[in-house]
């Protein structure tokens, strides 16, 4: 049986789960990841899940200047870390300010409710790249199944392929992969929500 590693970009899966009306849970992630393997021909070596915990901190609101406290739970990341075959790789979520909810912004005095916080995920694509390079170097798997839409992963995909690994881009329902990602993978796998 072919050994595979499944690399899951949590932010990417979260977006498409919401679009499909699915609750983003550890069970959903596990079912999706296990569904990436061809059961009769492939053995899952490991499932690596990449995501950030919620932003925790304080920020001044854009109009009033009052302080807003951001809190959240990393329960899903903790649950996944305890599941068989899973390893969780944490990036960092950075607060990047406030964005208007509607554009153009005009016609009345603005309030804090007219803005939403903007966050940026940092370090996830780098961790995906490092793990792909590690698999390419130690040859513990023959195939990497990658669930992402981040084109920053392309150099790692190219490296893994040059080292002899197969790279399969996993497509979840509703996702149209970037042409660049398709150009640098060996195969495409379509999976469905369970």
Structure notes:
- The protein is of the alpha/beta class and 194 residues long.
- It has a single domain, classed as 3-Layer(aba) Sandwich (Rossmann fold).
- It is built from six helices and nine strands.
- Strands 6-5-2-1-7-8-9 form a seven-stranded mixed sheet.
- α6 (179-183) links the parallel β8 and β9.
- The longest helix has 15 residues, at 124-138.
- The protein is elongated and about 65 Å long.
- The two termini are 24 Å apart.
The averaged pLDDT comes out at: 92
- Assigned CATH superfamily: 5'-nuclease
Total strand count, please?
9
Beta-strand residue percentage: 25-35%
Sheet with most strands: strand arrangement: 6-5-2-1-7-8-9
What would you say the CATH architecture is? 3-Layer(aba) Sandwich
- Cα Rg: 19 Å
Contiguous helical run count: 6
Query: First CA to last CA: what distance?
Result: 24 Å
Secondary-structure element string: EHHEEEHEEHEHEHE
Low-confidence residue ranges: none
CATH topology: Rossmann fold
CATH class: Alpha Beta
The major pleated sheet works out as: 7 strands, mixed
The proportion of residues forming helix, as a percent range, comes to 25-40%
Content-based structural category: alpha/beta
Instruction: Based on Cα principal axes, name the global outline.
Output: elongated
Tally of individual domains: 1
